[in-house]
Prior knowledge:
Blueprint: H1 17-27, H2 30-43, E1 47-49, H3 61-64, H4 71-75, H5 86-98, H6 140-150, H7 155-166, H8 178-184, H9 193-203, H10 216-225, H11 234-243, H12 245-249, H13 253-260, H14 264-275, E2 297-302, E3 305-310, E4 318-320, H15 322-326, H16 335-371, H17 373-378, H18 388-395, H19 399-406, E5 410-413, E6 416-419, E7 427-429, E8 435-437, H20 438-450, H21 460-469, H22 476-485
Parallel strand pairs: 2-5
Antiparallel strand pairs: 1-4, 2-3, 5-6, 7-8
Helix pairs in contact: 1-16, 6-7, 7-9, 10-11, 11-14, 16-18, 18-19, 21-22
Amino acid sequence: MKHSLVLKMGQQLTMTPQLQQAIRLLQLSTLDLQQEIQEALDSNPMLERQEEGDDFDNSDPLAESEPSHSATSHDSTVSTSSERNPDSLDEADQWGERIPSELPVDTAWEDIYQTSASSLPVSDDDEWDFTTRTSAGESLHSHLLWQLNLAPMSDHDRLIAMSIIDAINNDGYLDESLEEILASLDPELDIELDEVEMVLHRVQQFEPLGIGARDLSECLLLQLNQLPASTPWLDEARRVARDHLDLLGSRDYSQLMRRLRVKEDDLRQIVELIQRLNPRPGSQIETSEAEYVVPDVIVRKDNERWLVELNPDAMPRLRVNPHYAGLVRRADTSADNTYMRNQLQEARWFIKSLLSRNETLMKVATQIVELQRGFLEYGEEAMKPLVLHDIAEAVGMHESTISRVTTQKYMHTPRGIFELKYFFSSHVSTSEGGECSSTAIRAIIKKLVAAENPKKPLSDSKIAGLLEAQGIQVARRTIAKYRESLGIAPSSERKRLV
């Protein structure tokens, strides 16, 4: 093989730390981004928040290249400023020239910075009362132990009760048998099975009603036994819960009427009484902390026009601290000056990344609103089919960038708050050669089921026929998939007595 020198020209993308930062900020949710900004403020002395009414010099090269969308969107962008002395002017101008006007965040780089939506912690008060015991963040186990501490009970029975509470799952049912609970206790205590069952009956009187049941029948009976004796059809409801739950589950109402010897109107009242009970009493105690959604984009209608604005409350305005920036000296290689110069460069890159994120988010959100005007005007049934490629082609970016922008980003509309990915859906063909969004089809299915006859609910085949009559060609299997995604039960389980 002969060695030779060859001159070639080519282009390649260099994943610099600044570019990695821009891409990472682009895909962060609002809550995660606020945390990232706070960490940057804590670690970089050159960064500071711009308070309301602050006036500063906009002669910084970075501020001159700041994009302007509209009056409202401009308020929500990040502003920068730097008051510099003459000694640092030339040096700062050189740094500004090295920062491009647009960061090339539109790349096919893999999403290696996956983050999840952060949840805001619930603050703990030192004082608790009865009304706060079932607040968000409290577990069912701690709620039952709190009631156990208030119950008059001997130490012997209290130990048994704690073992029983430990065996109750999150739905409120007893996972272990009484024999297993007895075997877990200290044999030297000489506890008998009757004592365990007696303490179980005490625990079953705790809130919420139905707690500590061994099966669904016992859970419903515990709740029925707490109702006033004058409650209509109480005895019949107990009979159904004790002996005929299988018939009720299969909706064999004719057999139930024969067993209970009641008429259809009477059976309807009995079933309604049972349906008011909670089959999962433990679910009343919320064990998870609330997660808050902060919309990134606000959409509103003004004079028959839909306006898209960045949420000014979701993004703090940052700037370079003019005092510290003015301390940077030209041609000074001391350790302190080098540190300040590096911090100033990082601060400007960070601000530029935030500006780029806001601009990209505005472009994508504006295009989504432009294509989904029908949804904003008329609701889900007017949703148009939309995929990432459509937005990417319209704004001139890569699909991976659109995916990052629409992940964990939310839009506040007059119809509610939606994730940007909500507006993307597949399509099915219509008889006229057009396309219909899967979101619109789900809305139509939901509307048809809500208007159906409860005695004769619509089957999947019947729904497919009704959609075909409207010119929408959907297979029965697709109807079943959409129905399950909406949480709608099959027709056999939707049958009701009228």
